[in-house]
Amino acid sequence: MAGLVLGAPELGMLTATELGVWGDPIGHSRSPLLHAAAYEVLGLPWSYGRRQVDEAGFEAALDGLDATWRGLSLTMPLKQVAARTATALDDDARRTGAVNTLLLVTGERRGFNTDVGGLARALTEIGVSAPEHIRILGAGATATSALVAAARLGAQRVEVRARRPEAVRPLVERGASLGVQVSAEALDAAAPHAVHATIATLPGGTDVGAPAEALASVGGPLVDVVYGGWPTPLARAWERAGAPAFDGRAMLLHQALLQVRVFVGADAEAPLDREDDVLAAMRAAVMGD
């Protein structure tokens, strides 16, 4: 993460203990459970809450924080405005134009996108470690993180299906910069090609209808980034096809672990002390096992 690694003197100044997740809506967020579990294992007396903040009120809310604040987790609709207000961005935040983690230190707002690494780790965990061809459903902000995650895992081709194929154009351009060939298809286009995995970034509960059956038959394992209202209509289509379907909790878990790395050591790539224990506690908090 070029340009974002803090030296020891700077880390010594990281004495603030307040953290939280902001978004609108925010009541459904499981981030407080995840982070509380992590800091208990690490023996850190930090406070992590939640606050409903919309895009229009974000900058004023951020400006109102005092020196007790260490950082923020950010969910929709704040990821793009956070990227615009950050004083520095990590590579994934630059590639996606989205920030889901702000580290507040020495008057700076350092932006990270741990959704990318979280999704890549979640895919690896279910055995998708070296996919050549990935399909992404949806072309919104989360699809950009999914594309960067696919590139990180080595995908050479990514097919993006959206209700409006013209909405895929920015992803085609982004793919070119990553060395990935991105193609656009209508969500209901016929005769899908076989892929190694499918990532659904559609709003929760979206029902694509009959095309879901064809997509499931050649879609490989499905990761649907939603984690409420399970199984989704897409997941049910995958189940009928006898193919595995996974909700977004693993992505949520792993992006939160990377956030903890940022808040503790200012580096999403640097493992924590007792990281295995931290991950196990966070997994139990979000998945119950």
Ranges where pLDDT stays below 50 over 5 or more residues in a row are 1-9
Could you describe the largest sheet, including whether it forms a barrel? 6 strands, mixed
Number of helical stretches of at least 4 residues: 12
The tally of beta strands, per DSSP, is 12
Beta-strand share of residues = 15-25%
End-to-end span in angstroms?
32 Å
Which word captures the global form?
A: globular
Q: Give the count of structural domains.
A: 2
- The share of residues in helices is 25-40%
- Computed over alpha carbons, the radius of gyration is 19 Å
What does this structure look like?
It is a single chain. This protein is of the alpha/beta class and 289 residues long. The protein has two domains: 8-114 and 253-287, Leucine Dehydrogenase, chain A, domain 1 (Rossmann fold), CATH 3.40.50.10860; 127-243, NAD(P)-binding Rossmann-like Domain (Rossmann fold), CATH 3.40.50.720. It contains twelve helices and twelve strands. It has helices at 8-12, 31-42, 58-63, 79-85, 91-96, 114-125, 141-152, 169-178, 211-217, 233-240, 249-265, 275-287; strands at residues 18-23, 47-52, 69-74, 88-89, 101-105, 108-112, 133-137, 157-162, 181-186, 197-200, 222-224, 245-246. The chain has a six-stranded mixed sheet, sandwiched between helices. Helix 2 (31-42) crosses helix 11, helix 6 (114-125) packs across helix 7 (141-152) and helix 11 (249-265) crosses helix 12 (275-287). The protein is globular, with a radius of gyration of 19 Å. It starts with 7 loop residues before the first helix and ends with a helix. The model is unreliable at 1-9 (pLDDT under 50).
